[in-house]
Amino acid sequence: MTPSPLATRLRIPSGPLFFPVTAFGPDGSVDLDAYRTHVRRGVEAGAAAVFACCGTGEFHALTPEEFEACVRAAVGAAGGRVPVVAGAGYGTALAVRYARLAEEAGADGLLAMPPYLVVAGQEGLLRHYREVAASTALPLIVYQRDNAVFTPESVVELARTDGIIGFKDGVGDLDLMQRIVSAVRTEVPGDFLYFNGLPTAEQTQLAYRALGIGLYSSAVFCFAPEIAGAFHEALHTGDGTTARRLLDGFYRPFVELRAQGRGYAVALVKAGVRLRGLDVGEVRPPLQEPAEEHVKQLAQLIERGYALLEESK
Predict the structure, then answer these.
(1) Smallest Cα–Cα separation from 253: which of 298, 306, 308?
(2) Phi and psi of 234, rounded to 5°?
(3) Could you say which of 35, 98, 168, 270 is catalytic?
(4) Catalytic one of 143, 216, 251, 264
(5) Average per-residue pLDDT for the chain
(6) Bond from prior residue into 13 cis (ω within 30 degrees of 0)
(7) What is the model's pLDDT at position 90?
(8) 252 contact partners, CB below 8 Å, separation of at least 6
């Protein structure tokens, strides 16, 4: 099977994978100008790809019309310099609709999120993702999390499906992931892609790298691209000293702060973008804004993270 252009571009990333927040104006509507600025700055800061309207981008809160407008804006802001991957989800019919909207908007690929609400068996999950993959010419990355958890045998079937090029893990079961990687490597030799999709994935990436999984999401890149970029560089050059310094001094405290509130994996990131000078608005319900004290702690933590970079020079 010939690798898709997206798979070829993602295989050895030049920088972090960027999951931009979606900007909203004071009236709650999508602010496309601020969104384009956010995406453009991320690309210029060294992102290897833009994953638009995914979890950090509040896919759940966007109408189809807003989704298409944001994906189109991300494609324009990226300007072909890096690929743009768009989210797609809900039930099969809506996931197909979002896939087609993303294709019309110029996206290079799709991140297929779990089906809405229901807990399905393995055969039902396979049918869902096969139908989405068959509905579009865009290559598909399947996102394992919440109510979409796969057996190794099912991931082998995903890897055999035309159009499905990768698998992103948001569960964190390393034993399961080792068995998945081993099964696919044995049954479907090739270049199937794997991603660490846990919140603040940098915190667990050393463990995922040991499984051969080098790709990971970086929400921190949204508001501290230099810190995220330095960590990414440290991983790829074997600079364990810098990686450990950032893990101990920035990422672990950030994860502990993130754990202080539900939905902070998105809301705290969006607050971080605002702290760095770009008004991207608040999160939409049912998410809620972080407590004022937590935002103050985030500001202090960002300062500490940049100080750690200076110490590394």
Answers:
(1) 298
(2) -60, -40
(3) 168
(4) 143
(5) 96
(6) no
(7) 96
(8) 203
Give bridge partners of residue 50 from the DSSP assignment: 18, 84
DSSP alpha helix (H) spans, the chain: 5-11, 32-44, 64-78, 92-104, 122-134, 152-159, 174-187, 205-210, 225-237, 240-246, 252-258, 264-275, 292-312
Nearest to 129 by CA among 182, 167, 171: 167
Q: Is 116 a catalytic residue?
A: no
Residue 46, pLDDT above cutoff 90: yes
Residue with tokens 């931009």: 20
> Hey, what are 48's tokens?
């290897």
Residue type, 257: L
Give, to the nearest 10 degrees, the angle between helix 174-187 and helix 152-159. Answer: 40
Q: What is the pLDDT of residues 242-271, one digit of tens each?
A: 999 999 999 999 999 999 999 999 999 999
Active-site residue flag, 168:
yes
Rounded to 10 degrees, what is the CA torsion of 92, 98, 99, 102? -170
Residue with tokens 């384009």: 36
DSSP 3-state assignment of 268?
helix
Q: Which pair of structure tokens corresponds to residue 69?
A: 């407008």
Q: 0.90 cut: is pTM over it?
A: yes
Q: How far apart are CA 111 and CA 146, in angstroms?
A: 15
pLDDT for position 311:
84
The reported pLDDT for the residue numbered 152 is 98
The C-alpha angle with vertex 63 and arms to 57 and 66, in degrees rounded to 5, equals 70
